[in-house]
Amino acid sequence: MIDRRLMIAALLCALLGLAACSGGTEQASLPPQHGAEATLQLDGLELLDGSLLDTAASRGISVEWSEDGGRPLAMIHAEDVRNLRALYFSLEHRAGLQATVIEAGDWAAGNSLELALTPASGHSEAGIVLLDPDNTPGFSGSGLLATVHFDNAAGPDRGSSQAPLSEAARTELSSFSEFFSMYWLYRNPGDYDQNGEVNISDLTPLAVHFGENANGAAFSQGSIQSVVDGDGNGEINISDISPIGANYGNSVTQYDVHVGGTGDYPQTPGELSGIPAIESITLDMASGSPAGQRLSFSFGLQFALPASSGAWVRPVSGTSEGIASNAVGFGNKAPEVVLNLNSPVGVTPFTLQADASLSTDADGDELSYSWLFGDELTIFLSGSLLTFENQGPTFAEDALAGNYFLGLFVRDSRGAVSFLSESIIVTENPGWQLLDTDLDGYHGNFQKFADVDICEAAGRPTIAYSFEVQGGQQCYFTWSNQLFSASNWDVGNIVHAQSNVTGSEVAVAEVNGRAAVATTFMRPSGGEAVYAGQIEPGEPELYNQQVFETPGGGLSGVDLQEINDQAMVIYRNNATGEVRTAFALDDSAQNWIGPVSIGITGAPSSPISLAEIGGAPAFVYWAGPSSNRLRIHRSVMNLQIPVYDNGLTLSVLTSCNVQDGLLILDDGRPAVIFSIPAQAALYIMRAIDPQASGWEAPEQITPAGALPTEYSTAIHAGRPAVAWYDVLEAELYYMRATDAAGTAWAEPELIDDALATGTRPAMAEVRGVPVIAYIDQGRNKLRYGIRVE
């Protein structure tokens, strides 16, 4: 079971390639060949790494010096070489010579790339590589391989390796403030094989991708094509040799991470750092395959940056420092992401449409949007994907049937990034999509589930559940950032635990944008009534708890709602038959009045259903066999205090159950859905007006032959809906009205046909999608599902 925040962190770890998670870089598809000394014939000639030939079978490569019109030239000969596709070599010669041109022999003429240069006095390097060397047959035999022409004028001595200083080498640093992490891409112009140094072997990736183009656009900066397209013109061609020559010898062995004030940031590319690095990220800590994508790096800070501080990275080679990245931090706030979908679920043919144009930045910075879409596991295992190229605030994709991951990175112009994701479900046929949550596996000594409830909180499916452990029962609440997921539930949120408990009930609701739970416990020595709610949305570990009472008798029948912007809890004292209520006086639900008795007596352990009528709480219950009355009590608000009336009898029934049954119809009228166990049927009663001043006669809604026991109600797509457990068939059914008033109903739809007694179904609507949670007692699982329509 994965904490959703940890899941996001793990996802970002995979996507960002955090150093702590990195397994190092992979080798290129054309591995360097070693053991070339066996093929050398004369001093001063040395094969370089990157040469592609069968060194074990080749006899020799030698150099012959000559002149042409007084200008020196070196001719490279082969003696029985095998499968030669690339030849990279260095020549030692007298000072004052400058390599100018290399000509390929007949084996490669017209089908190769060549480069010759003199990076240091008395030392030249040259290379030839066949185009598409992976798929081109190599040369085998003897003959002239290459001719290198020299001028008698020495070029500039490049000296030792230097870290890159050009603007093209400046990397864009991005920061994820929520995870205290930074991310950047490798940039060393001309280092096409990404081995840390610009050298002659960088011709090989150029030959591999030669001729590829971006169809008039630019290559994605995370792609290997973007690395090899050295001049950035969207086409890999002969002009991309120039960056190799221009940056020859530049190297990056590591990136140093610096944290400091504005005065510490290097103002010019060559300015030395005035403060020490807090960490060095070496090249082998990069994420991604150097032959398949641009390498990426990450670093996790141990602290949030103070508003007066910023962070940046710079490439380093030995004692040489390269151009610094942009700086992140300095009080810059991350964007606030708003993501709207046409629907997170759909039936084929389905086009997903996503819109993040309402996202904002508190600093007024310009925003860019980078989208990810596809199979979650594939994305999870991918390498460098976070290129933050601006794809615009909207996204559309035609999707076949399947489960998809939609990710959105919103980056401001100063590098602060926010991340949001959604799960997308597309099916070939409409109906319920079910899964096991596996919440049982998270808890030690777990025995069986006791109760469950579900709601939408902060746009997330949120479940409260209670269960038995050895010697007692516990209540937890959990939610998922994804609408349909088995593993992305945040489960470490305990509300209360108690020993010697014989039963427990839970209710969950959104209170001021936060998840909140109320629960009651029954036990021989006395029950307990408890409330717990998040202090901050999205912070599962931060919640406050309120224990209302611990009377001598058991408590049951709990319900929770946000009414008049206040958390309100109602439950039943089984020993006295009283209905008890408590209500919060502030948004944080830390200051309460109650519990107080409303003075109502009734059946022990009978459910109570709470809802808002006319801006004030109202509740429905069955008073039990002493009066056989189905009752509703309304209230008016005296400032923040509800004042209840004496109640109204809706019907006199010898048996009744009101289980999550008080609804508000689309026209504002309340309605009650209740069961009459003696008649094995569900009924609906509607008020004649939103004030519930009168009520229509009850109407049966379940078909003849059904035997509904436990049930749950909700408003789905503006219409009343009910899920019920048929005790005779051991099956769970769903039925929805065909009109907003619930005067006509569609045929029952089977949800699950393999259940045991005690499903405790609960329904809600999350982002317009019907959802359900219930207990599968036969397999001892808590099941969750959504309806795709």
Mean pLDDT: 86
Question: How many DSSP E strands?
Answer: 53
Structural class of the secondary elements?
Answer: mainly beta
Unreliable stretches covering 5 or more consecutive residues: 1-10, 13-41
Shape type: elongated
Cα-atom radius of gyration: 36 Å
Largest sheet: 5 strands, antiparallel
Roughly what percent helix? under 10%
Number of helices: 5
Q: Report, as a whole number of angstroms, the end-to-end distance.
A: 29 Å
Hey, roughly how much beta strand do the residues contain?
over 45%
Overview of the molecule:
By secondary structure, the protein is mainly beta. The two termini are 29 Å apart.
SSE map:
Elements: H1 4-16, E1 45-47, E2 60-68, E3 71-84, E4 86-92, E5 98-104, E6 112-120, E7 123-130, E8 139-151, E9 174-176, E10 181-185, H2 203-208, H3 224-228, H4 242-246, E11 254-260, E12 279-282, E13 296-300, E14 310-317, E15 320-321, E16 328-329, E17 340-341, E18 345-347, E19 350-355, E20 367-374, H5 376-380, E21 394-399, E22 402-412, E23 417-427, E24 431-436, E25 446-457, E26 460-469, E27 472-480, E28 489-499, E29 503-511, E30 514-522, E31 528-534, E32 543-549, E33 555-563, E34 566-573, E35 579-584, E36 592-597, E37 608-613, E38 616-622, E39 629-633, E40 635-638, E41 641-644, E42 648-652, E43 662-664, E44 670-676, E45 681-686, E46 699-700, E47 708-716, E48 719-726, E49 731-736, E50 749-752, E51 762-766, E52 769-776, E53 781-788
Parallel strand pairs: 18-23
Antiparallel strand pairs: 1-4, 2-3, 3-8, 4-7, 5-8, 6-7, 9-10, 10-13, 11-12, 11-14, 14-15, 14-16, 17-19, 19-21, 20-22, 22-23, 24-53, 25-26, 26-27, 27-28, 29-30, 30-31, 31-32, 33-34, 34-35, 35-36, 37-38, 38-39, 39-42, 40-41, 43-44, 44-45, 45-46, 47-48, 48-49, 49-50, 51-52, 52-53
